[in-house]
Amino acid sequence: MMNSKQNWVLKIDPKVYKVLSKIPKEYAGKILNTIKSFSADPFTGDIEKIKEQENSWRRRIGNYRIFYDIKMKEKIIEVTWIERRTSKTY
User: Per-residue confidence of the chain (90 residues) as pLDDT tens digits?
Assistant: First the structure.
């Protein structure tokens, strides 16, 4: 995958914090740490590009999925949503 030593700007949608507040603390902590690590390299971990979306990705953390957009030119990562994976997620 791509790798960059340069830091990225991380933007988190306020809805993400709302979802995090409803997730069990142990998972919420892991998810938040993962989100923070995106600024160093958004292309690590169990990630997958979202089909038919130009800049959208998802990263898997256990049963949860972090959805985010990557703006390459601006070096911006926008975390847009977190969702618990169920049979209806995809």
Answer: 454 456 899 999 999 999 999 999 999 999 999 999 999 999 999 999 999 999 999 999 999 999 999 999 999 999 999 999 876 655
Contact between residue 39 and residue 32 where contact means Cβ atoms under 8 Å apart: no
- List the structure tokens of 61: 């953390």
pTM of this prediction exceeds 0.90: no
Dist. CA 30–CA 9, nearest whole Å: 20
Structural domains in the chain (count): 1
In a domain, 3, yes or no: no
